[in-house]
TrEMBL record:
It comes from Bifidobacterium longum. This is LacI-GalR family regulator. GO terms for molecular function: DNA-binding transcription factor activity; transcription cis-regulatory region binding. Keywords: DNA-binding, Transcription, Transcription regulation. The keyword Zinc-finger does not apply. Residues 5-59 form the HTH lacI-type domain.
Length: 264
């Protein structure tokens, strides 16, 4: 019966010490690239693998990234966020854990539990706000928080975002240039007290219509709670007069409506 290879077996094969083998896996920055490659080659030849739990104990890292999503990962936005992060983190040896955040309570629960468990090396928050009191404890534990298109960069260790309001102003300009004068904006009716970056789009489109030559344009704001969008579709086709252009907050609204309207 073949025994399972050990750290000492890898060390003998690579002609290094056992502590060097350990550092090559847990603290690679302390080992030269040439030595680490020799250790990895020896480990591969022996079919040796390092336990993730033992690496976590030695390094103090969980090798896990917490991704907080307020929308399902199956949506275009959630899916692309996960895919982009996974392309970077997976080759580096990190797993991504998704935490659904539907309201202020679930957000607060996450930030209450995470510091005690210490089961994530970083937290990534796309599109919604975080409370400074909730993240203060994480900062004392040196757990970075990254914001992707969040409402502001407050409380964030690193932040990247687009200007939602400016984007909608450009859309207004384009629609008016096409001679649309009756524009309806369809958005989700917020079900929680989470402040989402999408709220800035409403301000952008309203601000765009108040500016310059667009003041004569009629604008309707339509909030929907209907996931199937059937009631939204019925309301839109029964508007008098009907809108000449429909602008949607997100693809999850735009695509189903577009398919229904093409059949109309």
């Amino acid at each position: 019966m073949t025994s399972t290879p050990s750290v000492h077996d890898v060390a003998i094969r690579a002609n290094v010490s056992a502590s060097t083998v350990s550092r090559a896996f847990t603290r690679p920055e302390l080992v030269s690239e040439k030595t680490r490659n020799r250790v990895l080659q020896a480990a591969s030849e022996l079919n040796f693998s390092v336990s993730r739990s033992s690496m976590a104990l030695k390094s103090g890292q969980s090798f896990r990234i917490a991704l907080l999503l307020s929308t399902p990962v199956t949506t275009w936005f959630g899916g692309n966020i996960f895919e982009g992060l996974d392309m970077v983190f997976h080759p580096a040896g990190y797993d991504i854990s998704i935490y659904p955040i539907n309201n202020v309570k679930s957000r607060a629960d996450f930030f209450d539990v995470l510091p005690a468990r210490r089961n994530a090396d970083a937290v990534i928050v796309p599109s919604f706000n975080v409370d400074s009191r909730e993240v203060a404890r994480l900062k004392t534990m040196n757990v970075p928080i990254a914001g992707i298109n969040t409402v502001s960069n407050e409380n964030m260790s690193v932040w990247a975002a687009i200007d939602d309001a400016h984007g909608l102003r450009l859309i207004v300009r384009h629609l008016v240039s096409l001679r649309h004068r009756r524009i309806t904006y369809v958005c989700r009716d917020p079900q929680s007290l989470l402040t989402l970056s999408a709220a800035q789009r409403i301000r952008g489109i309203q601000g765009g219509l108040r500016a310059g030559p667009y003041q004569s344009t009629t604008f309707w704001l339509f909030r929907t709670e209907d996931d199937s969008l059937q009631s939204t579709f019925n309301a839109l086709i029964n508007m008098q007069p009907m809108p000449t252009a429909i602008c949607c907050q997100e693809d999850g609204i735009a695509i189903p409506l577009m398919c229904r309207l093409r059949e109309f």
